[in-house]
Every structure is written in C-alpha cells, then in structure tokens.
Amino acid sequence: MTAPAVPLKNLGPLSEQAAPPLFDRAGGFYFTDCKGTSTQPGGGVYYVSPDFRQITPVLGNMALANGITLSQRGKLLWTNEYATGRLHRVELADAKTVAPFGTTVPYHFVGHAPDSLRVDADGNVYVALYRQGRVMVFNDNGIPIGQILLPGREQGHHLVSTSLAFVPGSNEVLIVTNDGDGSEGSWIFKAKAFAKGADLFSHQ
C-alpha cells in the first residue's frame, strides 16, 4: 500500500528535538542514547525503573540509536540506528531483559536515515525517513507492507520527515516535516494508517 498524506498545518520554523522517552505499563521508560558514528558505534537503548533509581542498558554498541517504540502488549521493542540505517526488532523477556534469540535486524534502509517510530494496535511499525519525505510501514515481523508519501517530495520539498504520532483512538497518523533549505517551512501532514494507534502507556 502506498498512501498519500495531506497538509494539515504550517508550523513555521522549528528546531530539532530529541526523541521523547517511551513509557511502559509499569511506569518505567526507555530512552535512546544517540551517539557514535557509522564506524564507531557508541549509543544504545536504556531502561529507567519506575522508581527512577536504576538505569539498565538493554541494547549496546549502536550507531546513533534513534527512534524507539513498544508493542501494545509491551513485549516487542523496536528501535533503529540513524548512522547505519538498521531497524531492530527486540523481543523482551521482561522490561530490561532481551529474550533468548530475541534480537534481529529485519530491515536495512537505503538512502538517508530512519528517525522516529510508532506502532499501531495490530503491531505494524511506522518509520519516518529523514531526507526522504516518506514513512515506511512494516508488519510485526519487520516485513515492509506499505509507505506514506508526502506531497512535494518528488520536487524536493518536505523531505525532512523526522517525526510522527497517532491521533489517540484513531487510525490517523500525523507526520511532522520541514522543507530544509526550501521555502515551504515546517508542516504537519495527516494520513490513514493500517489500524488505530496503539494505546500509549504514558497516556493511560
């Protein structure tokens, strides 16, 4: 499936933001340490306990660990590496422990890098692609099943597609973009997803 996106709002100039923390059902949260290079990985994924007293590494040796999201049941963690263009699928035994044989890299991106991630209620994963003006969609095994193309991308506009979010309780996904060196500024586009967005534990 290739779905169109429609413009929703012009935001004006925006500064780049760090990826937000990802909360789980217990009240702890995951975050990515976005550092390293394609040849010297130095980042990773970490889990902060619900009482905020303990920080545990979950994945290490990542090259600019970036986007992160969690399945509806909290047993499948997805993250990516900006510098190497890799999508990681991580099965969890518990919040801070990877299950045996639980890590795979089901997809290697071509071109500029993967950025923010979101998951829908059916387990599909949505990945914003920086400098590509599109969002790729994968099933819960990491197989590509569709994409959302932003208007103007063929003319070189709205390529800085870095972030996305679901409208709560709906299958509408909002995509935040910037025109980079172009003249069209920052926009929010909306598009239809395969399913409703997964319930965020931070909003329950």
Automatic annotation (TrEMBL):
SUPFAM superfamilies: Calcium-dependent phosphotriesterase. Residues 23-153 form the SMP-30/Gluconolactonase/LRE-like region domain. Keywords: Hydrolase. InterPro entries: 6-blade_b-propeller_TolB-like (IPR011042), SGL (IPR013658), SMP-30/CGR1_Lactonase (IPR051262). This is Lactonase drp35. The keyword Hydrolase applies. One of its GO terms (molecular function) is hydrolase activity. The keyword Hydrolase applies. It comes from Paracidovorax wautersii.
